[in-house]
Amino acid sequence: MKNITDSFVSVGHWPSAGSFEFNTDILATNPINLSVVLGVLIFFGKGVLKDLLDKRKQRILSTIRNSEELRRGAAEQLERARARLRKVEMEADEYRLNGYSEIEREKKNLINATCDSLERLENYKNETIFFEQQRAINQVRQQVFQQALQRALVILNRCLNSELHFCTISVNIGILGSV
């Protein structure tokens, strides 16, 4: 902690009480600058990020609801298939002597087709959810990065003026001249 304090306020750099100097030690000032920039980004960016995440959440929930509706539709199809299966089984009792093996094949095919449909729908739902999540994450990352960069540029442009530029350049030339 003493080293950090010494990097900001060094008694050796203060010849008189009224003078002012810039600390040109990059290793000491960069963590402070980064923490200030991150603090500003977090303070101003959290509302925007929250809105973006809420919108993405609503889209994902909508996709999930759509997938659930598809699942319900598939369940209804399954129920209709089961009703049809019961009907086929009743007919099978009537026609057992004539074509028992053919009816059993139709029953199995019907069950397999329905199960395959359900599996395809479930896989499609899972793939859609995963794709939407990945897309939402990538969009949020890109938008947060762009907004953070734009805000940082606006803040820097607001804070930097020609007089400050001139003073910084003069100090750096003086340091390079003394080396």
Automatic annotation (TrEMBL):
**Topology in the lipid bilayer:** Single-pass membrane protein
- Is Ion transport found in the keyword set? yes
GO MF, one annotated term:
proton-transporting ATP synthase activity, rotational mechanism
Q: State the InterPro entries in the record.
A: ATP_synth_b/b'su_bac/chlpt
* Pfam families the UniProt entry points to: ATP-synt_B
**Main localisation:** membrane
Q: Which residues cross the membrane?
A: 32-49
Keywords (alphabetical) are:
ATP synthesis, CF(0), Chloroplast, Coiled coil, Hydrogen ion transport, Ion transport, Membrane, Plastid, Thylakoid, Transmembrane, Transmembrane helix, Transport
One GO cellular-component annotation of the UniProt record comes to: chloroplast thylakoid membrane
Instruction: Give compartment(s).
Output: Membrane; Plastid, Chloroplast thylakoid membrane
Which residues does UniProt call coiled coil?
Answer: 64-98
Q: Does the keyword Transport apply?
A: yes
The record's note on quaternary structure and interaction partners says:
F-type ATPases have 2 components, F(1) - the catalytic core - and F(0) - the membrane proton channel. F(1) has five subunits: alpha(3), beta(3), gamma(1), delta(1), epsilon(1). F(0) has four main subunits: a(1), b(1), b'(1) and c(10-14). The alpha and beta chains form an alternating ring which encloses part of the gamma chain. F(1) is attached to F(0) by a central stalk formed by the gamma and epsilon chains, while a peripheral stalk is formed by the delta, b and b' chains.
Similarity comment: family membership: Belongs to the ATPase B chain family.
Q: What else is known?
A: In plastids the F-type ATPase is also known as CF(1)CF(0).
Protein purpose = Component of the F(0) channel, it forms part of the peripheral stalk, linking F(1) to F(0).
- Report what the protein is called: ATP synthase subunit b, chloroplastic
Query: Source taxonomy lineage?
Result: Eukaryota, Viridiplantae, Streptophyta, Embryophyta, Tracheophyta
